[in-house]
Amino acid sequence: MPESRIFSVPIEEEMQSSYLDYAMSVIVGRALPDVRDGLKPVHRRILYAMHEIGLHHNRPYKKSATVVGEVLGKYHPHGDAAVYDTLVRMAQDFSMRYPLIDGQGNFGSIDGDAAAAYRYTEARLSKIAEELLRDIDKDTVDFVPNFDEKLKEPVVLPAGFPNLLANGSSGIAVGMATNIPPHNLNELIDALIYIIDNPDAELDDIMKFIKGPDFPTGAIIMGVENIRKAYETGNGSIIVESAYHIEEGKRGKNSIVITEIPYQVNKASLIMEIAALVKTGKVVGISDIRDESNRDGIRIVLELKQGAQIRVILNKLLLKTKLRTSYGINLLALVDGVPRRLSLLEMLKLYLEHRRVVVERRSRFLLERAERRAHIIEGLRKALDHIDEIINIIRSSKDVPTAKAKLIKRFEFSEEQAQAILDMKLSRLTGLERKALEEEYTKLIQEIERLKSILGSKAILDTVVKEELERIKKEFGDPRRTRIMKSLPEKLEERDLIREEDVVVTITHNGWIKRMPLSTYRAQGRGGRGVLGMDQGEDDFVQRVFVASTHDRMLIFTNRGICYGIDVFELPEGSRVSRGKPILQLINIPKGEQVRGVVCERDLKDIYIIMVTRNGTVKKLRGGDLKNAHRGGIRAMGVVEGDELIDVSVLRGGEDIILVTRNGMVVRFPEAQVRPMGRSAKGVRGAKLRKGDHIVSVIIPNGEPHILFITENGYGKRTPVDEFRKIGRGGMGVIGIKLSEKTGRVVDAISSKDDDQLIIITTGGKILRMKVKETRIAHRSASGVKMINLLEGDRVADVARIPAGEED
To answer: 307 and 363 in one domain?
Structure first.
């Protein structure tokens, strides 16, 4: 009975061992490039096979099928699709920064079109690819047996230029991946030469030459710091943005023209992405999309409608399409057969070491060949000096071995010399041939000395490496295609995707809010009846109305001193007669709190906010302290029991603060009398109030010449600001408007200029828009004139100013 060959092995050990074997096979034999020549095995085998069958750049093309068959049959026993796909990519000028294959026929397109079948296309090596193979026959690299051990293939190519960084590489192995971007050859070679001259060079020195990746499709890299981080650690991400410009068309119709797109982005898919956004209404303002690309380059034309907001459209496209993408960098390559994540500096130094080895091995090979040839020529020279005797020896010998033995014995020739003499043609006996032999010998001696100097001196060897790199740069170097912006792009927020326009925002007593285009309200004359603003119902009325931009940040202050933050564009858009949406659905206002102040600003960090309570307490707060205000609310002011926040305004520095009371009193004092406080502070006294009076408004004039008073019965006037003297914080103030039963008490007071417009809103929901200059200018003791005709039981609820230049 034969001996049993069955072994018991724990399954976990067998699986671990088998999987590791598989993983290393994928890592080393398929997915990762060698740091020296930047090639994976399939790329290297294709280039070597083409070199072996003479498909050089100056020879006729041959069918790609020939190449595929050659590679499969001799070096790469895998599927033909894998070989042909690799060959195709090496021929695509939009995939490779420096294509290694010169293809003829359909090799695919940047639109994602597949290449024609390999029986239709033709290929040969590109001129620069031959620099990867140069001197491969001079013992510059090691060879190993092919898969059936009938032939030999190179372990690595001599690589006359740093192909790994010049063309980049990407691949997914088992448990690891590589993604190396392409770079500019001029920059790489300049950096390599600098490292040769300065062995202690650091990354910052190298980045003076290598600015960043240089993609074949151009585009723009945003942010130098991200590039540096990836180069230093071997891992990182960069932002790549399309290149575009604006072309002016007829009748104000402009076009966005995209001329470069990010690397590895499919142009046809990009156009489809844009078209889908336009079709679904997510991008508004594009009337036509045309692809006018040709052999001269990419040209995607986005024709815009008249009046379209270019910046908003571009922001949406950059955020929602691949016009702007992230490119992940992972500098992973094989070093001595082991995968390693490398820094840029390490990659360059490892390549230089490879070139030094190649030059040294080539020099040693050439030296041995030159010395052998010199040795032969020395024998021929000696033979010519004794040619008659040598001829007699040969003639008298019965065969060649006898003649060789006699020559070696008589003249002390070596075996090689004796054989060369026996093989020498009679034509070498002429004087001309003798002279040529002497000249060849002289050149060989010089070449031997040169090669010995290279092998004997690292400095001379480095000089040879530099000279060869400089030759490559001169022959193949080209200008950079990808531009680099120093700073990162501004982070696009949702507001950047919203059309910027002025809107009217209304808030009702019961907390309904909406926004409407400013153009909804046409200007009327003084005394007009107004237009219906909304159907708010019998138990509700519009309490606050103001004009804002859709890009403003809206801070909503409640009577308890809490601040809530929301963007204006997030407010529900409504028609003139719609109710809008409850504020409670937008911000989390607890029961019992009421909106008492609203601030709309693009940037909060450069402003102060002045808050005034019903009982005359004022507080100044830095706007930046409220930058984190959210829908849940944060504390803006500590309000004491029995008091409440009544109004809020914005300070920009150096202004006066004017407080207006319900009984028409005005208190004016410099803002410097109120120091900035923290969010939880309660504030200081701003005005001393008589019994039954309270604050209705805080005004910051900002250069406006008049204060406009509006009473609850629709009376109003304008009074010059200069008529109100500064009396200091905490005073009782002076009369601002003479009140009576006819006028009613003051509802609101605002600063104004002649070119401004007003929106007056009543508790009955009527809205009147009018020009400020139609309001009478009167002394501070006057009562004013009728501003709006009110129906019985109706009264003025609020007033808003439309600054000059913001009207429709």
So the answer is: no
Query: In whole angstroms, what is the distance from residue 747 CA to residue 661 CA?
Result: 9
Q: What is the DSSP letter of 671?
A: G
Which tens digits make up the pLDDT trace of 596-647?
888 888 788 888 899 999 999 999 999 999 988 988 899 999 999 889 998 8
Q: Are residues 672 and 724 in the same domain?
A: yes
Residue 754 in domain: yes
Residue 324, strand partner residues = 241
781: which residues sit within 8 A by CB, 6+ positions away? 735, 738
The SS3 assignment for 735 reads strand
Nearest to 642 by CA among 567, 559, 530: 559
Asked whether residue 489 is domain-assigned, the answer is no
Amino acid, single-letter form, for residue 489: P
Indicate if the alpha-carbon torsion angle 208, 213, 216, 222 is positive or negative: negative
Give a three-class secondary structure readout of 326-367: EEEEECEEEECCEEEECCHHHHHHHHHHHHHHHHHHHHHHHH
Virtual CA dihedral for 200, 203, 207, 209, nearest 10 degrees? 20
Active site residues: 120
The whole-angstrom separation of Cα 94 and Cα 481 is 12
The 3-state secondary structure of 484-543 reads EECCCCCCCCHHHHCCCCEEEEEEECCCEEEEEEHHHCCCECCCCCCEECCCCCCCCCEE
In a domain, 65, yes or no: yes
R_g (Cα) of the chain, nearest Å: 43
Asked whether the beta carbons of 620 and 671 are under 8 A apart, the reply is: yes
Read off the pLDDT of residues 421-448 as tens digits, 9 standing for 90 and up: 888 877 666 766 778 888 989 999 999 9
Enumerate the H helices of 124-239 as residue ranges.
Answer: 129-133, 163-167, 185-197, 203-206, 224-233
> How many C-beta atoms lie closer than 10 Å to residue 761's C-beta?
26
pTM of structure:
0.71
With beta carbons less than 8 A apart as the criterion, state whether 599 and 557 touch. Answer: yes
Tell me the CA distances in angstroms from 299 to 190, 286, 322, 483, one per residue in order: 33, 16, 16, 18
Quick one: pLDDT at residue 295? Answer: 86
**Phi, psi of 290, rounded to the nearest 5 degrees:** -130, 140
Output the six-digit token pair for 727: 């009396």
Are residues 351 and 317 in contact, defined by beta-carbon separation less than 8 angstroms? no
The predicted structure's pLDDT at residue 395: 86
Same domain? For 442 and 527 the reply is no
State how far the alpha carbon of 115 is from the alpha carbons of 79, 161, 266, 375, in Å: 17, 28, 15, 55
Residue type, 795: R
Name 750's bridge partners: 708
Q: How far, in Å, CA of 518 to CA of 781, rounded? A: 34
Contact 267, 293 (CB under 8 A): yes
Q: 264: domain range?
A: 243-322
Q: How many separate domains does the chain show?
A: 4
pLDDT tens per residue across span 202-244: 999 999 999 999 999 999 999 999 999 999 999 999 999 999 9
For position 264, which CATH number holds?
3.30.1360.40
DSSP state of 745: S
Distance separating alpha carbons of residues 329 and 362, to the nearest angstrom:
35
- Residue 794 maps to which CATH number? 2.120.10.90
Write the Ramachandran bin of 511: left for phi over 0, alpha for psi from -120 to 50, otherwise beta: left
Question: CA 182 to CA 210: how far, in whole Å?
Answer: 11
Contact by Cβ (8 Å): 434, 384: yes
User: How far is the C-alpha of 596 from the C-alpha of 375, rounded, in Å?
Assistant: 106
Please enumerate in sequence order all residues whose Cβ is within 8 A of that of 806, keeping only pairs 6 or more positions apart, or say none.
502, 518, 547
